[in-house]
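User: Show me a protein chain along with its predicted structure.
Assistant: Here is one chain, sequence first, then structure tokens.
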Amino acid sequence: MEKSTVETKILADALTPRQIVEELDKYIIGQFEAKRSVAIALRNRARRQMLADDMQDEVSPKNIIMIGSTGVGKTEIARRLARLVDAPFIKVEASKYTEIGYVGRDVESMIRDLTELSVSRVKAEQTTTVEEAALELAEERLLDCLLPMPRALKSQARSKPTDEFDADEDMDIEEIDIDEDEDEIQLPFDLETTDEQNEALEKQRERHLKTREKLRQQLKEGKFEDRPVEINMKSRSMPFVEIFSPGGIEEMDINFKDMFSNILPNQTKKRRVPVSEARQILMQEEAEKLIDMDTVISDAIERVENSGIVFLDEIDKIAGRESRQGPDVSREGVQRDILPIIEGSTVATKYGAVRTHHILFIAAGAFHVSNPSDLIPELQGRFPIRVELKSLNKSDFQSILTEPKNALVKQYTALLQTEGIEADITEDAIDEIAALAFQVNESVEDIGARRLHTIMEKLFENLFFDAPDLKKKSITIDADYVRGELAEIVKDQDLSRYIL
């Protein structure tokens, strides 16, 4: 019954396909079919977790191939999808992988990179949970540096059993500045103190604690933020090791570093930094001590195996049958190397074995000179869902300029506002920009929405340059202004090839 409740909660917490599409609509214009396909694939992950354990292993993710020219939203859909559900996500280009035996990265490195990213993310989350405790420990170390314990009290503390004084007295001697010119500290077995001496030491101890508490309050109030302080911090220098290794064991150099870090003693170095910077350094060190890395790694691997998303871009570059000329020689070989990972295999990483059976693979390519059917049949079968993204027209460009949360018009007006300039971009200006983008895409080369970036940058170039010196703090950008800035460039086809 308890398991059923947990499973129901998993599905209840997951976004519905309609909600996923609505969220993607906030950032991406059009491409409903592609959004619908990724939304269903994401929802099916939550549904799979509600099945019986033996059935869960049988349900494999329905990988997707997105077909469309550059700039139509393929990468953005995958990236926003991963961000929406906070899943480990990595974008890789298929063209950078080569068949084993050729120069290049082996295909398993994509899983290693995804695991590394997941570990970093989980570690950052754990650091946030222990931030308060780490701050308290960091402040204790800062107080030790700002107000070192008097030598007499340290001698007394050493002569006492550890359970006879408070945690405030338990200082790290290495972190306290000690003047080497002073007399040597008397060892505990040489101490012969009288009652008067003990009473004087007790009063000195009380004064030290009162002063320490005053300093603590002032430290919390930020009165020492710019004061320089000398701290002992861990030295991160590692012996240089260069490994010449064949493909498949490219993680060897990292493992050597881990091995050396365990063999060599921890080294510390002194740094003189402001209190504000010292607090951050010490907080990071204390947080690392509080975090259980075994838990972090196991949680990270579980996220990769059950929620990971790999966006495999430019898959059309490796499509094609075996050829004996030029760079095509390893195309089919790369496909055969990628196949086991997509089918489901176990990849060895420095954090442990990672199973790829339930990682979602989203492939994308323009497929101008090849077709998905040019992929080897085994690989085609592992991408059962194919979605064709439509090229963008003038109306789409108009929407992209104004509707998304991060719309270009909003970005450029915000940049000008930092200089105190209020820019009013009229509707006819937006129509003109969209028309020019569509015209250049048609006449030069279709690069989709990226064309808007080049046109907007050229349109605002003079304004950005003169903005700090402008006396007029309001400007209206209309269709005439747009034509005046861009018309000559658009007319000159040869020049537009280089500028727009």
